[in-house]
Amino acid sequence: MWEIVLHVTAWKNEVRRRLSGAPAGDPEEGDWPEVPAPTAEAWKTALERLEAAHRALIAAIAGLPEAKLFEPTNDTRDRDNGSGVSYYVLLHGIVQHDVYHAGQIALVRKGAEELIR
Known about the structure:
The protein is built from three helices and no strands. The protein is mainly alpha-helical. The protein has one domain (2-116). The longest helix is centred in the last third of the chain and has 30 residues, at 87-116. The radius of gyration is 16 Å and the shape is elongated. The model has no long low-confidence stretch (mean pLDDT 92).
């Protein structure tokens, strides 16, 4: 679960970076950042960083002009075929990413609760 929290945080930060016009790339923290030594304080910090990344992404989205939604981001992956990756697609992607990993967390948590019983 901790790995997923760090991964989701990293990608929220990456999408926010791309919204500012930065070129597409892996998150600065890495795709799957290394989990620190497991302490209550480190877990609290991870959750606080996730919350901060989420709030910062919401703020960045709120500042995005609606007219920009269908403009291409600075991502060249699909430009050869003329499709590009729009801000609209980028934002839908991070929502789908979060939902997918939220499902993983729910399954991990359910499994852990069943082990405890």
